[in-house]
Fold these 4 entries.
Entry 1:
Amino acid sequence: MSDDALQKAFAAVSEASDDSKQLELMRTIITTQVIAQAMQPQQPALPARQEFDSKKWLTIGTLGVAGGLVASLFAVAVAIGWAGGYAVLCAVKSFAPCRKCRGLGQVERFGKPRTCPRCHGRRLRLRLGRRAHNYWRRTHQAGTR
Ligand SMILES: [Zn+2]
């Protein structure tokens, strides 16, 4: 009951003079601001930190995915380019110098020059791609005959 009486007295004093009323208003405003400031860093701090972390990881993940995509695209482009170049090479220059005799048609064995056993002196070998193409074509022709 004493608190009630005190509040009543306070109210009476506040009503009595405008200055004290404003002071009370200021005090309540200040206290609410202090409470709000005390509450603020605790409540939104965790979600804010989580959001920052998720953003960071999202950025890292995006960068990683983008990098991987670019790398794989580059690898695919290089593979296509190489395959295309090899296909053209097989079509235009289907023969390459023999690997065993390096296109000489002869190999040295026991100090004596001998006919290359790989190319039989023809100095050339059919490229693997062309051989595969020929094999496929013959099989295809045999199948469609
Ligand atoms: Zn040879």
Entry 2:
Amino acid sequence: MDPDTSFCDPTQAEDKDESIRFSNAFGSSSSLSEEKAHTADDKSPLRPKSPGGCVDTRDFLEKYVGIVTLPNQVQQKAVKKGFVFNLMVVGESGLGKSTLVNSLFLTNLYMDRCVPDASEKIAQTVSITKSTVDIIEEGVNLRLTVIDTPGFGDALNNHESWKAAVRYVDQEMEKYRTNEIGLNRKNITDNRVHCCLYFISPHGHGLKPIDVNFMKALDQKVNIVPVLAKADSLTPKETRNMKAKILAEIDKFKIKIFQVPECDLDNEVLFKQQTLELKKSIPFAVIGSNTVVERNSRRVRARVYPWGIVEVENPSHSDFVQLRNMLIRTHMQDLIHTTHYVLYENYRINCLCRNPFLENV
Ligand SMILES: Nc1nc2c(ncn2[C@@H]2O[C@H](COP(=O)(O)OP(=O)(O)OP(=O)(O)O)[C@@H](O)[C@H]2O)c(=O)[nH]1
Ligand SMILES: [Mg+2]
């Protein structure tokens, strides 16, 4: 595969954030008339090649060496390669995992799914299924892989339900490591799990033993984002209590969940505010639906009940928007970055420590 058309690696993807800030800062500096006035420069080798054509002004050439165009160059390359995001969804059957994934990415990933009957479920073991879609938005291509775990919590004895998921996460880390030390490092496909949405039932009293076991087994290997499923079945007060209980138990059992990074001092006030709200929303109380209804002449995703309509994207009904913002709009690169530089590094170091040839080094 041509390296330029393969999907980008996390180190390059990370820089996209920078490039977006850059193009915002300079985006308005170019105009058609300015372009015309400088046609003499067009063939100059010194003329900076800005992907959006937004910084090609004489003023700019006189003031700068051109280093400021680097983020734009990175953006151009990253967009050309596309992005990869691997999301695992785990939680008891029927908690709305598939519905939420479809609602998040506005796609139907589970068209051919057949639901097992009760007798099949008793003996069911956890299987791992992968669905991949390419989502293209304004020329930016995201290859999304959703790793589902149907059967989780379905068997009579769920003592070891989490093992299949742990095995999968380890396998993908190992494949990446083997590829990294292999000959062809250019075209490594990143199949490591970047985020695990863990669905918690709204009907219990906080975490169940299976929830604790799963999160404890995986918290050093993957970014866990806890979500309180089917939040429409709880009143606002019950939701607040349930969230507090879950957080207290996460703390009590020393479970490590994904931490939204602190803002930098130079971040905009609005961004700081949004990050604070995001942190306060964890665990996200979510509602999923694939039904679109007309509401005040708007088309919205909603759940229709005899007593009223619950809107998926209404912030007073659920934290769906907060979760989507975090996963896609603000922290996707952080999740990928943590997977590569923290979780994968830990895995790699553990492998090196186990290597008998290094014991005496
Ligand atoms: N009340 C309510 N029901 C929901 C919600 N999300 C999904 N459902 C319903 O719950 C049922 C199960 O949803 P799925 O998305 O198939 O659940 P799942 O977790 O993927 O189930 P498995 O694939 O069997 O593990 C469906 O009838 C959905 O319509 C929600 O937020 N609230
Ligand atoms: Mg499902």
Entry 3:
Amino acid sequence: MSWPTSTAMPPTARTPAPADWMPNSFRVTNGGISRVSTAAPAPGGPGAAADPWFPSTLAGSDSAVNSNAVDEPNQQGLNAAGNLPGAAPRAAPIYAWLERLAVLHAGLVDVVRGGRSFEGRPIKGVRLFPGKDKPRLFIEAGMHAQEWITTSTACWLIHRVLQADEADAAPWSGLARAFEWHVFPNVNPDGYEYSFKTERAWRKTRSKGLVCYGVDGNRNWAYGWNPGNSTTRHPCARNFPGRAPFCEAETRGLSEYVRSLAPGARLRLYVSLHSSKQMILFPWGCSREHSADHEELMEIGQRAASALERVHGTKFQVGPIASTIYMAPGNSVDWVYAAGVKYAFAMELRNPVKPEQYVSASAIEATGEETFAAIITMLEEVASRSSRCGK
Ligand SMILES: [Zn+2]
């Protein structure tokens, strides 16, 4: 018996994607998407430890990529590549990697721009699996600069979904490819870099105010912004919403990009990544009132949390932002939901061992694996609900 031989070799050696590690598996048949397996993966199962990609590419051993990381090590103990011990990549290597993906996966990956930061860095993301009439998924990470794991996780998600595509073996890859993905791993690059170079716990943008730097990017969106126009909010506060909605270049640019994706029509699912309270959240953050879609969003969130838990046993709480974590007026998910994207979620990723300190390669992998399970489940829910008559 002979197997057909592929004439197209992948440009670099990669680990084949495991076929059945996901709790929910999917196959596209006659244009429809159906669940084909409910086998639970083993924790740390196939594909987890064998994949050397992330740390080797982004955290120091790939000199071609990391030649962009030129900052001097400082007293925080950054290594020569500008990273803490661990695997969190700097902004420039991330962007270099995105550009490289677009070359390696021509036709499947485009680098896209959601404006420019206050200090002039481009807000880069990728579009995966572009298609004329495909529904769209949007993932943003790094709005809060110190939440490094969110940026690393978004990169891992990009890597994972492309890896599955190459191997063409993962049962969920059909579902993934049915959507056009827009992923922005680092939407606050100024703050992110500042959190490496100067202040590890920095959260805000780096715009220059009269007395303090920065605005909380997740309080600056133009829905329910700064209720009562509170003038008591101090500009040095960590959750300072800014002097006006969308006064920040980062939120303005990103929101314009989101608007261009036809929210509510083609843009069907939005996920904002934060860390690290282990929650799946949905509108509203500006009010304790239930949204019109409360029950449905709760149901999807709980299914996503169950899928996530099946990967490594991590338990996530599910509920509206305001009553589950705290009031957060002016957050991106509220704005996106109000703009017509019914399926709008924020995820507070798993709690690391040392919050805000190290982001190890194994932490990125474990977080990535379970987050991916949740997002694939959300995609399945959105796809199946979209195809229901009358919905
Ligand atoms: Zn956050």
Entry 4:
Amino acid sequence: MKIHIYILCLVFSSVYSESVFKNVTVLDITSKSEMRSYMKSISKDLGVKCSHCHDMDDKSLDTPQKDITREMIKLTRYLNDLLNSQSEDSLQSNTYVSCWTCHYGQLQPAARRPGK
Ligand code: HEC
Ligand code: HEC
């Protein structure tokens, strides 16, 4: 039953998002205002402007930065799913890992601690 509802949601969200956005293949966002606030949030997490990833004349066009970001969104989702599946009692929220967790306002996360 659960899986049926999940599939229905997937079908519905992909059909619906196609009518609002032209080229959204990973995010489950269906409204313009939600998209704007998500995009503002990841921009702050990485310390970049919209134009770092987008052609500002047409934001639906693909860019190499958008491709990397799609993989990063999947990575973040995977980590949260994994953490959520570990312990329902001790963990309180649904989102433990965000772009900020690793990026900390920088485009390139620090690979090792400073002073080494
Ligand atoms: C780090 C890269 C990155 C930054 C910075 C970024 N975006 Fe995006 N944006 C993406 C990716 C990736 C997608 C497509 C997501 C998908 O396919 O699920 C997207 C999709 C969009 C879309 C949907 C376009 C369409 O019709 O297909 C809009 C609108 C948008 N972004 C607006 C913005 C705005 C406004 C900003 C600045 C506040 C911004 N983005 C900053 C990566 C970025
Ligand atoms: C688990 C840690 C982690 C999380 C979470 C994470 N990233 Fe990353 N990200 C990395 C690492 C590591 C790199 C590679 C940095 C390098 O090349 O030095 C990277 C690289 C990137 C790059 C390419 C940077 C460049 O040099 O051009 C973008 C864009 C990016 N991440 C966006 C995101 C976004 C958006 C999110 C949230 C949806 C996110 N990342 C979440 C670890 C993470």
